[in-house]
Amino acid sequence: MAGFVRELERRAGPALRLEQRAAGGVGSVVWDAALVLAKFLETGACPLARRHVLELGAGTGAVGIMAATLGANVTVTDLEELQELLMVNIENNKHLVTGSVRAKVLKWFV
Known about the structure:
This protein is an alpha/beta fold.
């Protein structure tokens, strides 16, 4: 499926590169709210080093991956059909991660 990349600039170091999909629903794109929350986390107002973070409905994983670059141990979750996109984004940004990040399936309404 065709995709496009959105870069999320970081204060220190290279930007996150986040794959998105042209089709696939609301979880397939980086929402502006995700950018705002990721930038807020980067301010250090809530130190994340060595914290455990669970992101529900992660979509592209933008917020969770940013948290992992700040030292958090993150589990990003979303539907089965978004796991490939999450794994691509984790793989593409693993060199920036100082904590850890993994993807898990979350089945809504079960």
